[in-house]
Specification:
Elements (H helix, E strand, L loop, with lengths): L2 H28 L5 H27 L5 H24 L9 H24 L8 H19 L5 E6 L2 E6 H30 L12
Antiparallel strand pairs: 1-2
């Protein structure tokens, strides 16, 4: 096994450590005596895992250690770390919790992309998956939202009054809404490109159903 793959596996093993520390800190908040060392431990583990992504990629390229196993494990580790952070911080009773729609939207987009990929592979025999700029922005903003939530940085907090309705809105909410917007847009983009690949193979033609 290559060094790059070992680092990727180590990143995967850090995910449950991060989740455990985040949940322990959330429990201490619920009990009214927050243990800040647990929060900082969760942050440290998350940062270490995120940094290892760049390290294993550099090693794989620099020392020609690219492998089929790495091509499978690396995106799984990245997505696992990202989803664990978002889902955990949505239900762990930290100072700021992500709204429920945020993890639902992200998980739903990934499920749609995975289902579409399997469908394309089944019908076309091949799949062309190219990361989009909206997808890259969505991932970056999701990481920013996680970082701001864990560090509990909220640069501003406003109360918006709309008629008889009031809405508390801060910088953390702005990061979440921006991440959610680009996640939604990137999801639609992947669906559109997937449909285009189906049409390229003639699966959009009604006559193709007679061949099944």
């Amino acid at each position: 096994m290559t060094t790059a793959n070992k680092i990727t596996i180590a990143r995967i093993m850090l995910i449950p450590v991060f989740v455990a520390m985040a949940l322990y800190y959330g429990r201490s908040v619920q009990h009214g005596s927050p243990l800040e060392w647990q929060r900082w431990m969760a942050i440290a583990v998350f940062v270490l895992a995120a940094a290892s992504d760049g390290i294993d990629g550099y090693i794989a390229r620099r020392y020609n250690q690219k492998s089929r196993l790495g091509e499978v494990l690396d995106p799984l580790a990245d997505k696992g770390l990202l989803l664990s952070g978002i889902i955990t911080l949505s239900f762990s009773s930290w100072g700021y919790e992500f709204p429920v729609w945020f993890p639902v939207l992200i998980v739903a987009r990934d499920v749609v992309i995975l289902s579409g990929t399997v469908t394309l592979h089944f019908l076309n025999g091949s799949v062309r998956v190219r990361p989009s700029w909206t997808g890259k922005i969505a991932t970056a903003l999701q990481m920013v939202a996680i970082a701001l939530c864990m560090l509990q940085w909220n640069w501003f907090q406003k109360t918006l009054a709309i008629g008889r309705w009031t809405l508390d809105f801060g910088s953390l909410d702005l990061a979440v809404w921006l991440a959610g917007f680009f996640t939604l847009v990137s999801g639609f983009g992947y669906v559109v490109r997937g449909i285009a690949q189906l049409h390229d193979k003639g699966h959009g033609d009604p006559k193709s159903w007679k061949e099944i």
